[in-house]
Every structure is written in C-alpha cells, then in structure tokens.
Here is the input.
Amino acid sequence: MKKYTKKIMAMVTVAATMVTGTAIPVMADDAPTIRLITWLTPSNPAQKPSYDAIESFADDHADEFTLEHENIVGDELKAKIKTDIAGDTVPDIFIYWGSGGNSTMLLDADVIIPFDEYLDASELVSRDLFPEESFSRTSSKGTLTTITTSLQYGVWLCNKALFEEYGLEYPKTLDDMIEVGKVFNENGITPFAMGSKGGNPAHEFVAEILGQMPDCEKDFENLTQNYTIDTLTFIIPWKLSTQ
Here is the structure.
C-alpha cells in the first residue's frame, strides 16, 4: 500500500493528528498504512491512557488506514530515528525529543512537514491550543518545526538542615549556587549531587545553567544552528561552584 505522503510529520504531533481525529478519510481500497513510532507502552501506567487512545482511534478508523505502531523506549529511539533519517526510511509519525538542535536536524534533513504548515492547513488544530513557552524548544530558523506533547520540569532538592546550620539562603541563580558551593566546600560538604544515567536528566540542568550565562542567546543559536557549543563557557563556572 502506498503511503499517504512523501514527507513525514514528527509526532511530537500525534496527539493532534491521531488522537483528535484529523486524519483524512480515504476509500477502503486505497487505505494507506501509517507507520507510527512512539515510546508509549501499555505496561507503563503513566503512558497507558495515551497508548490506548491511539489504538482506539486506529480501531475506529480501520476502514481508512492501517496503523503499524512500533514501541521503542529510551535512547534507543534516538538511534532508530537517526538511522531511519540516514536510510530514508523515516516513519510517517514519530515522537522525538524537543530541542532547538533536534528541530534544526529534522528540518535540515527535509523529512518532516513543519508544524507551521500543518497548522495552516488544519481546520481543527490551532496554535493557541499549545503552550507558548514550548515553541522555542521546537522551532528552528523562524519555523515551528514540531510540536510538544508534554513538558517536564526539573527541581533541586535542598538539605534544609545544612542550609540552616550555615545560615544560607536557598540559591535562586547560578551566582547564588557558586556562593553556596564555596561555603559547603570550605566545610568539607559536597555541594551538589545528582544521578544521571546516560546523560539523563543532567542535560536539562546544564541547559538551565547555560541559559544564565553571558551571551547565552548566541550560545543557544550556535547550538541549534551549528550543533556545537563552547563547553568552557559553562564548565568553568560550574566547577567553581562544585570544587
């Protein structure tokens, strides 16, 4: 069966295209097969409602298309999509990580329909249905490349007893963290501790630190456009706070 489109829409849009029912009906003898890749699994209680909604929608529209739903968890999904991009076998709809760098990669590879184009064509889905603060993470070169399905927020947990013992205020900025780190280091206390398996979730906190650096806008632009960054820009201040 032929695909319904030569380009691909990243899912980061599946909630809009599949769950809300904006698929275009076609004749049964010309029904396409849609290949969907997500990290959603029915065994995960947090993901099961979304997984079930997709499967239910596919069942309700079985006369219009056949859904092939592949489940790939964690960083294996990153490797899979990059391999598919290189081999020109990108799935029709897929979930990926929202970031300026990833958005630029997908846009430059010319394998997705930019979400701006989707919004222009859709009669049911509009830009105001999505949080404005998410657009910067899924845009590139002035184009809303993909759309977010969820936002995550990370927090630091502070040892209240230690802050009270040394008369310290909870840090609110990078400069505050550096000053707190100096006091703790002087007293033989490790200022910060965080688990990060395979880079997760350390990249989120490093991004927050980078966002407080001088000229951070230029750094982010370089990161999203050229996929590179001067690591010394934020490594040196970070080391000052932890040594």
